Amino acid sequence: MEPRPGAVACALNTSPPMRLAACLLLAIPVAACRPPGYGKDSHPDAAPDGAGSGSGMSPDAAIDGPPAAVCNHAFRLDGHGTASQVLLTGDFVQWAAMPPAAPAFTLGGDGAWTVMYPFQQGTWQYKLIVDGNYILDPTNQMTVDDGMGHTNNVYTCVP
Fold first, then answer.
1. Is 109 domain-assigned?
2. The domain containing residue 114 runs over which residues?
3. What is d(CA 122, CA 82) in angstroms, rounded to the nearest whole number?
4. How distant, in Å, are the alpha carbons of 7, 99, 110, 129, 134 from that of 123?
């Protein structure tokens, strides 16, 4: 006796509870499978970095290149506690005169303005802008003529 065409498909189309039971029976063995060695390692990290584990494993990613050569330089301006704004500008920010490109100083409780800037390696010219007026940094005697009749401060970052 030959099975009639579509007999298998008709069996699954009989009722929703029957389809649910068939799906569960097929899903239970798949859900219960675990890879060999699963749960035997006391480390929860699936990709140990080898640090202190004694496994001899190395990290799975290497550093792409040397760390960036940066100098975090702190600036401080005293004697301008009544100013409303102090900015740092220079060739490192294309001489921007407005935040956010020109880093803004913060006024401290002692009346001094301070800012920290991460300079890339190299020599940089800069000035301070106090309420719109460009001034030299009084704490840095290193200056250079800008070629247009003005003087700029110079900072050299050597990490």
1. yes
2. 70-157
3. 34
4. 83, 22, 31, 20, 20
| Rounded distance between C-alpha atoms, residue 140 and residue 45, angstroms | 51
In a domain, 126, yes or no: yes
Rounded distance, CA 79 to CA 111, Å? Answer: 7
**Residue type, position 84, single letter:** S
Q: Tally the C-alpha atoms within 13 A of residue 104's C-alpha that lie toward its C-beta.
A: 11
**Over its length of 159 residues, how does the chain's per-residue pLDDT go in tens digits?**
555 555 555 444 556 666 666 555 555 555 555 566 656 655 555 555 545 445 555 556 656 766 678 999 999 999 999 999 999 999 999 999 999 999 999 999 999 999 999 999 999 999 999 999 999 999 999 999 999 999 999 999 999
Residue 107 lies in a domain: yes
Residue with tokens 């303005």, as numbered in its chain: 113
Tokens at residue 77, please?
A: 């301006």
